[in-house]
Amino acid sequence: MDDLLECIFNDIKNTSAQMLRKFQRAMNDLQSSQTALFRKELPEYLSNFEFGTKFVQLSLEIKIIEK
User: Fold this and answer.
1) What is the tens place of the pLDDT at every residue in 6-60?
2) DSSP state of 2
3) Distance CA 47, CA 28 (A)
4) How far apart are CA 10 and CA 54, in angstroms?
5) Domain, as residue range, for 18
6) pLDDT at 60
7) Secondary structure (H, E, C), 3-65
């Protein structure tokens, strides 16, 4: 019984804590990548195209709503 409790409270606890840290790092990397994409890379990419006034108007309305 003591071996079972030791396994539960030590090995599994330590393994789950390691998995949580790896997950948190991965989520942080994902969020950083998304931020870079939407704040820098996407606007630069879209600046290569010409959009009509309807798109610009819609884009401005979205920015106003976000503020």
Assistant:
1) 777 888 889 999 999 999 999 999 999 988 888 888 888 878 877 666 565 555 5
2) H
3) 28
4) 61
5) 2-66
6) 55
7) HHHHHHHHHHHHHHHHHHHHHHHHHHHHHHHHHHHHHHHHHHHHCCCCCCHHHHHHHHHHHHH
Number of residues written out for the chain: 67
User: Could you tell me the CA-to-CA distances from 30 to 2, 38, 65 in Å, in that order?
Assistant: 41, 12, 26
d(CA 12, CA 6): 9
Domain count for the chain: 1
CB burial readout 22-41, b (16+ within 10 A) else e: eeeeeeeeeeeeeeeeeeee
pLDDT score of 53: 62
38 vs 32: CA distance, rounded Å: 10
